[in-house]
Write a structure and sequence with these properties.
The complex is a heterotrimer.
Chain A: H1 2-21, E1 23-28, H2 32-49, E2 53-58, H3 64-74, E3 81-85, H4 86-94, H5 103-106, H6 116-120, E4 130-142, E5 169-172, H7 178-185, H8 193-197, H9 200-211, E6 217-220, H10 225-232, E7 237-241, H11 242-251, E8 256-271, H12 278-291, H13 294-303, E9 307-308, H14 319-322, E10 335-337, H15 340-359
Chain B: H1 15-18, H2 31-71, H3 76-81, H4 83-89, H5 102-117, H6 121-129, H7 135-160, H8 167-175, H9 182-196, H10 210-215, H11 217-233, H12 245-257, H13 268-276, H14 286-293, H15 300-308, H16 316-321, E1 324-327, E2 330-333, H17 341-372, H18 375-386, H19 393-404, H20 409-417, H21 432-456, H22 461-468, H23 473-501, H24 505-510, H25 518-528, H26 532-556
Helix pairs in contact in B: 2-26, 4-5, 5-7, 6-7, 7-12, 9-11, 11-12, 17-18, 17-21, 17-23, 19-21, 21-23, 22-23, 25-26
Chain C: E1 11-18, E2 27-34, E3 39-43, H1 50-58, E4 65-70, E5 73-74, E6 85-88, H2 100-109, H3 115-128, H4 144-156, E7 162-166, H5 174-191, E8 194-199, H6 202-208, E9 211-216, E10 219-224, H7 226-231, H8 236-241, E11 246-257, E12 260-265, E13 270-275, E14 284-289, E15 308-317, E16 321-328, E17 331-339, E18 352-355, E19 363-365
Parallel strand pairs in C: 3-8, 3-9, 6-7, 7-8, 13-19
Antiparallel strand pairs in C: 1-2, 1-4, 4-5, 9-10, 11-12, 11-14, 12-13, 14-19, 15-16, 15-18, 16-17
The chains are: A alpha/beta, B mainly alpha, C alpha+beta.
Keywords (chain C): ATP-binding, Cell membrane, Membrane, Nucleotide-binding, Translocase, Transport
Domain ABC transporter (chain C): 11-242
Family (chain C): Belongs to the ABC transporter superfamily. Spermidine/putrescine importer (TC 3.A.1.11.1) family.
Chain lengths: 360, 565, 367
């Protein structure tokens, strides 16, 4: 009798202890080198310090908005922290699917005491968005396919110059970035691009410019397409995320060069799904405080060529990586910032026109 | 033995001949009933056997399709988010070219306020942005500034009397005395429930008195919404919370019209002094307030759009899906530079037909070989046919990419053979050709297998008979063998065609711009643009097309002419 | 051999051999000729080569060696559809997607015959098999016997001079089969068609044919009219295969003349027999006696006939005949059939009797 009682009590205790401490969190990210940089820079160090927390990855960031919406409708949110691009964070916030937060409460201040809201500054483009990195969409080209006697391309408008640089181009199969570049190269001042693009005439003008290279464009859907097309020599130049081009150049040693002109900055960061239970929310918040601090974001730049979203992290970025950062002054002479507000409004409209134009 | 059960001459009169009524079974019960009982038990057993499948199909197939069909017409987000506005807007005539009356703006303010508290206004903005570009940001930015007016009013009210800033005081003022007006609370409960989807039944601990509700209708409406939301959705104590800013907007609106002199409930004195000092408050019309936030709010177009999409159900998604548009002035053709879906539907059908046809052309000889080779060789060939099934779809499609691209295997071989100039390599991918090649390869087994099983059932003696009757090889094949293999072609074609029409991964990867299907657009709307209504409408149309083709096929060929084996 | 000479043969197989695998011969050195209008049956157990011969004649198999001639012309290199031979298949092979009339119309259409001619011929062919009312039906809507008639009509409708039939009655029940046997022979004779008929059913072969070719092991064992085949089998295979037969083993003792010899049975008894393929004393032999030729009434035998002792093992009453199983000279399966006549004795089990036969009915064959 006595023995049974002891055993029972022991089991109950063990169960209690296990239930209280073990916390399995599901993080959603993009997979590949980027997810790896997150793992190395902040998830592994955090789990080391908190052995009771374990992290499961779900590589669903590309469909995060649709999946979160479906989960929300089904009333069963299984994700705890979701990595999305800023535009998606805005949409999730609009839909009430992401939780609004107070930066100064949730996030750690900079080492010098600057509150997080100031340290991140404009990067917090939505009340739900916890920025991590700045990346850019830039153009890479085959150095060995530059026509003889020509300099390597140095302007984004070389994309549209088939005379000087014949060969196929790889562009993303959506209007964003392409329309801006087209208008810019059609002579629209950088500051006026979105005003022009908001009008029917401006949209037509952009498509007309794109028409000049349409037959030489291979349209891509996934970020991995352009590096592949460049490596195979299928295209002469193509746009993709700068981190992808970095690995083609530095890891695979392909004869590819970077064209940073008019690179389009974009942000990527976390959102917390709305409606998390109290205990999981607490665990996620605890992780975020650590995972987005100045050192951690700087550490991430060791593993991937994306810039940290905190001002205070910039000086801590390893020297050898600085030249590959989109934010490096040498690279950021002429840049464009993704206009979230504009594209939230015009995405459907311009996309319909863009697709109709593509199909023509 | 059998003699005893038969009505032979020796068997005597059987029981059923003796009875004049219904035939009886051995136990005396009517035969029909016994039979029905026995059959019912059999049917139940059969039903129990198929029940798991039935439930599975119902849950995983029928229900999602029904849900999809429903989504393609569902549109209650507009009336759920803006219930008063849409009701008030009914009488407005958009053809006058004038923005709606102040009353509409007042309703819109209170609706929007509740919606922005519940974070639902941006959803509506996204929904309306499908119809009118730019609405999304209007709703988002205006939602943030809705507080401003109430804050301004409160500042002025506080100058008149500090008590206005006291949540508990406002609570007691709204609670009033005498008969509570439960109708107002119920109305608010329904509205907040529809808005948030949250359960709003239960004890609220607040109900405005009839007198207050009559005297201060706008303030009561705002406060009741606040009370229901705070008490039942947020689960807080209403009396202790500061009211929404919209409550003060309601108060100012009400005081301009109300005669408070006869009122004697709690806070009557304050109402009287405030009414007297109303001149100190910088009252702004709500129309002006919205116009100041965004000029487009006094543009009749936006209101016409809201009015057009007020009904709970809309044909808008379906019209969009066939390049039309539901506008306030009726159904219109979409701008030419936005017309894409009809073209995509046509292309999908055309390419599916081409793919089906190439599957027949390529699969028929293979199936014939399979059916006529000796078993050992046929098995080997069968493995080759089935091989694609064992490889991941993505791998197969990517393999075609490597084969067909300009620096790919086929081009390399052609250049090496000197058949193609190195500078003019063939473009065989990222276009219709690439899609047709890759999809024909992927779908070929679905053609070969039914063809094979039908051909296996055609005895060789038919061909011999035809030849012995004087037919040449070709005539024997064409007039005797081929007609008998038609059911296999039918089954294979239906399979391939229906699979092809809904394919999206392969066209996405190798289709480029001219080789994509309607399903790629559906996928885009489901996972990327999140316009699920339009995606559902496109899917529903695709479903109807398939059913129509099936029906036509049944009419022309006859569905009993389809054999899978 | 038949009375036909090579020159007037309508169908002729000359030294035909057939091998499928290059190792074994399925048909070994086949020689056969038949005159116009003959009804010839190829009879034999399965695997004896009879169907292969038919298929070579139809053109679906090619002869490995030798020549097949039709009306004096070698048809070895003529494709089946140009041979103009009508054929009825085992399972009829009626085209299921065509009506009866369309099935019949098929051979006429491929011969580019005009519509009115076709209709007339189809009607005549259907009337011929009493199926005129079924022209619009599909084969699947017909019974087996009806399908059989249609198959026959289809094989005849284009008026071929030679018709081949490959076990056409195999799928029918007994009664229908007997009826169709009669109809087929009637039609063949009325129309004067040359017919090659393949079957493994000896009754069918005997009742229908002008001549029967008995096949075994890739060879024709005997080619003869039915009565000759039955009464004068040339070897013990034919004797065994055609009808019921009693055999007794022994050794030739003495050849006493061209049509008589004596055989010492293994039990020691000596009987007189007619030598068929034995030529000298000392040869092993099987003597064959038909059950109905065994006589138990001594009065009916010639004088000096050999008599053997027999023990009755079984007596079966079969209505028209009595069937008695006896032990004779060590053979336990010696059967005697006697007519159910008023004076016929009914033997009992265990009884011992003496039996005998005419020496001409007792054929000494190969061992």
């Amino acid at each position: 009798m006595q023995l049974t009682k002891t055993l029972l009590a022991g089991t109950a205790l063990a169960l209690l202890a296990g239930g209280a401490s073990a916390m399995d969190l599901t993080f959603v990210s993009w997979g590949g080198a980027y997810q790896n940089s997150q793992l190395k820079a902040y998830v592994e160090p955090y789990v080391k310090e908190h052995p009771d927390v374990s992290v499961t990855w779900d590589e669903s960031s590309a469909e995060a908005v649709a999946k979160l919406r479906a989960m929300n409708e089904a009333g069963n949110i299984t994700w705890d922290l979701v990595d999305v691009v800023a535009a998606d964070a805005i949409r999730l916030c609009d839909e009430g699917l992401a939780m609004e937060y107070d930066p100064d409460e949730l996030l750690a201040p900079a080492p010098d005491g600057t509150p997080a809201s100031e340290d991140f500054g404009d990067m917090i483009v939505s009340d739900c968005f916890i920025p991590q990195i700045v990346y850019s969409t830039a153009v890479g080209y085959r150095t060995d396919m530059v026509p003889e006697g020509e300099d390597p391309p140095s302007s984004i408008c070389d994309l549209f110059d088939l005379q000087k640089y014949p060969g196929k181009r790889a562009l993303e199969k959506r209007p964003i970035n392409n329309m801006e570049w087209a208008l810019y190269c059609d002579g629209v001042a950088k500051d006026d691009i979105y005003d022009v693009l908001a009008t029917d005439e401006g949209q037509e003008r952009a498509l007309k410019k794109l028409d000049t290279i349409k037959s030489d464009v291979v349209w891509w859907n996934a970020g991995a397409d352009t590096p592949q097309l460049l490596a195979d020599g299928e295209v002469f130049m193509g746009s993709t995320y700068n981190g992808r081009l970095y690995s083609v150049i530095e890891d695979q040693h392909q004869p590819v060069g970077m064209l940073w002109d008019m690179q389009v900055f974009d942000l990527d960061g976390w959102i917390i799904p709305a409606g998390l239970p109290e205990d999981r929310l607490k665990a996620v918040e605890d992780f975020l405080k650590f995972g987005t601090d100045t050192q951690r974001l700087a550490d991430q730049a060791k593993y991937i060529s994306y810039g940290p979203a905190r001002k205070s992290s910039a000086p801590l970025v390893p020297e050898n990586m600085k030249q590959h950062m989109p934010t490096d002054p040498e690279n950021a002479k002429n840049t464009l910032l993704y206009n979230y507000e504009f594209w939230a409004d015009y995405r459907d409209d311009i996309d319909a026109k863009f697709q109709a134009w593509l199909a023509k | 033995m059998t003699d005893t059960t038969q009505n032979g001459p020796m068997g005597g009169t059987p029981p059923e001949e003796k009875a004049s009524g219904p035939m009886l079974a051995a136990d005396g019960r009517p035969l029909k009933r016994s039979l029905n009982r026995a059959l019912r038990r059999q049917k139940l057993r059969a039903l129990a056997l198929i029940a798991p499948l039935l439930i599975f199909v119902l849950v995983t197939f029928i229900a999602p399709i029904a849900d999809m069909l429903f989504r393609s017409v569902e549109n209650d987000i507009v009336s759920n988010t803006l219930p008063s506005t849409t009701a008030e807007l009914k009488s407005w005539d958009h053809t006058t070219g004038q923005p709606p009356s102040e009353a509409v703006f007042e309703d819109f303010y209170f609706d929007m306020f509740a919606a922005s508290e519940a974070k639902q206004h941006t959803r509506l903005g996204t929904r309306l942005n499908y119809e009118d570009t730019g609405v999304s940001s209007m709703f988002r930015s205006s939602g943030r500034k809705l507080d401003d007016l109430g804050k301004d009013y409160l500042k002025a009210l506080k100058k008149i009397d500090k008590r206005w800033d006291d949540g508990a005081f406002v609570y007691s003022l709204m609670q009033g005395q005498g008969t509570p007006d439960t109708a107002v609370v119920d109305h608010s409960r329904t509205a907040i429930h529809k808005l948030t989807g949250a359960e709003t039944a239960g004890d609220l601990g607040f109900a405005p008195s009839e007198a207050v509700a009559k005297l201060l209708p706008d303030m009561t409406r705002a406060y009741t919404d606040f009370a229901v939301y705070t008490g039942l959705v947020d689960g807080k104590d209403v009396a202790k919370e500061d009211p929404w800013e919209s409550v003060y907007v309601g108060l100012v609106l009400d005081l301009q019209k109300a005669d408070v002199s006869g009122y004697d409930g709690p806070g009557a004195d304050l109402l009287k002094t405030t009414k007297a000092d109303l001149g100190q408050i910088p009252v702004e019309s709500l129309k002006d307030f919205f116009a100041k936030m965004d000029k487009k709010w006094i543009d009749p177009d936006i209101w016409a759009t809201i009015q057009t999409y007020s009904p709970k159900y809309t044909s808008g998604y379906f019209l969009n899906a066939i390049d039309l548009q539901l506008t306030p002035d009726g159904i219109k053709q979409r701008d030419e530079d936005q017309q894409i879906y009809i073209m995509l539907f046509k292309r999908t059908l055309f390419m599916s037909l081409v793919i089906t046809f190439s599957c027949i052309v390529l699969g028929y000889p293979v199936a014939w070989l399979l059916a006529n080779l000796p078993a050992a060789k046929a098995n080997l060939l069968m493995i080759l046919v089935l091989l694609p099934f064992w490889t991941s779809l993505l791998v197969r499609t990517s393999a075609w990419k490597i084969m067909l691209q300009q620096q790919g295997v086929i081009n390399d071989v052609l250049v090496w053979l000197g058949m193609v100039d190195d500078g003019h390599r063939l473009v065989m991918i990222n276009n219709q050709f690439g899609t047709i090649v890759a999809m024909t390869h992927i779908l070929l087994p679905f053609m070969i297998l039914p063809l094979y099983s039908v051909m296996q059932g055609i005895p060789p003696s038919y061909l011999r008979a035809a030849k012995s009757l004087g037919a040449t090889n070709w005539t024997a094949f064409w007039r005797v063998y081929f007609p008998q293999s038609v059911p296999g072609i039918g089954a294979g074609s239906i399979l391939v065609f229906i699979l092809a029409i809904g394919y999206y991964i392969t066209p996405e990867i190798v289709g480029g711009t001219t080789g994509t299907f309607i399903s790629n657009r559906i996928a885009y709307h489901i996972s990327s643009s999140l316009n699920w209504g339009l995606g559902a409408a496109l899917g529903a149309i695709l479903l109807v097309i398939v059913l129509l083709l099936y029906w036509a096929y049944d009419r022309i060929v006859g569905i009993d002419n389809v054999k899978l084996g | 051999m038949a009375a036909t000479s090579e020159s007037e043969a309508f169908v002729a197989f000359e030294r035909v051999q057939k091998s499928y695998d290059g190792e074994a011969l399925v048909v070994k050195d086949l020689n056969l000729s038949m005159p116009k209008g003959e009804f010839l049956t190829m009879l034999g157990p399965s695997g004896s080569g009879k169907t292969t011969c038919l298929m070579m004649l139809a053109g679906f198999e090619t002869a490995t060696h030798g020549e097949i001639k039709l009306d004096g012309v070698s048809i070895n290199n003529i494709p089946p559809h140009k041979r103009g031979i009508g054929m009825v298949f085992q399972n009829y092979a009626l085209f299921p997607h065509m009506t009866v009339a369309e099935n019949l119309s098929f051979p006429l259409e491929v011969r580019k015959m005009g519509k009115s001619d076709r209709e007339a011929k189809i009607k005549r062919a259907l009337d011929m098999v009493q199926m005129g009312a079924f022209a619009g039906r599909r084969p699947t809507q017909l019974s087996g016997g009806q399908q059989q008639r249609i198959a026959l009509a289809r094989a005849l409708v284009f008026e071929p001079e030679l018709v081949l039939m490959d076990e056409p009655l195999g799928a029918l029940d007994k009664q229908l089969r007997e009826h169709m046997q009669f109809e087929i022979t009637r039609l063949a004779h009325d129309l004067g068609i040359t017919t090659v008929y393949v079957t493994h059913d000896q009754t069918e072969a005997l009742t229908m044919s002008d001549r029967v070719a008995v096949f075994n092991d890739g060879r024709i064992q005997q080619l003869a009219p039915p009565d000759i085949l039955y009464e004068e089998p040339e070897n013990s295979f034919v004797a065994q295969f055609i009808g019921e037969n009693n055999t007794l083993e022994g050794t030739v003792k003495e050849i006493t003349g061209p049509r008589s010899c004596t055989v010492q049975l293994d039990g020691g008894e000596i009987i007189a027999a007619r030598p068929v393929n034995v030529s000298e004393p000392g040869q092993r032999t099987r003597v064959s006696i038909r059950p109905e030729r065994v006589e138990m009434n001594k009065d009916r035998l010639q004088e000096g006939a050999h008599l053997l002792k027999a023990e009755v093992l079984e007596f079966i009453y079969m209505g028209d005949i009595f069937r008695t199983r006896l032990r004779v000279a060590g053979n336990n399966d010696f059967v005697v059939k006697t007519r159910n006549a008023p004076d016929q004795v009914r033997l009992k089990k265990g009884e011992t009797v003496e039996i005998g036969w005419l020496p001409d009915d007792c054929r000494a064959l190969d061992a």
